[in-house]
Amino acid sequence: MKFHLTLLATAALLAQTGTGLAADDVSMDDPNIAVDYEEDGRYFTEDGVPTFNVAEDGTVDWPTFSGFRRYHAECHVCHGPDGEGSTYAPALKNSALDMDYYDFVDVVVNGRKKVGASENSVMPAFGTNPNVMCYLDDIYTYLKAHGSGAIGRGRPAQKEAKSDVFAENEDACMGS
């Protein structure tokens, strides 16, 4: 069953500041956010890019909840709680909205090094880390949901149940 952002969530999107999106750029029809279809409990945009789903009562889809958990297990040490950024690394909640999905994946898998007169930053490669790679789309959808304002900071209060399909995929990816 597909749910779209509610009026309340849309108001939160429009009120959100610092996301990298101007208020007039945010819309329920934004192709970077809008759910076009669902497949085995995962939601996608029209272009087949993973996205989040928040029900009217605030329940988040399983991948978004899983992404919250995995982000805080692997990424928040550098990028800060909830993808808000730190003095050490940038806010990823913005990257999930501003970067092309495939560029985001490339940076996580292969890392990135920016060295110059005004910048010296290194993002290590996580392409061999199953704790990141098995959940990369989940992390992306969590950051996208938070960056858009559809969910706030902290652990989402309500989540969909983890389906058998997710459990099987997780076991296969983690080598169980």
From TrEMBL:
Name the keywords, alphabetized. Heme, Iron, Metal-binding, Signal
All copies of domain Cytochrome c, residue ranges: 43-147
Provide an example Pfam family for this protein: Cytochrome_CBB3
What stretch or stretches form a coiled coil here?
none
Q: Enumerate the SUPFAM superfamilies for this protein.
A: Cytochrome c
Q: Which domain of life is it from?
A: Bacteria
**Signal peptide interval:** 1-22
Q: What GO molecular function annotation could you give as one example from this UniProt entry?
A: electron transfer activity
Checking InterPro entries in the record gives: C-typ_cyt_methanol_metab-rel, Cyt_c-like_dom, Cyt_c-like_dom_sf
Give the protein name, as stated in the record. C-type cytochrome, methanol metabolism-related
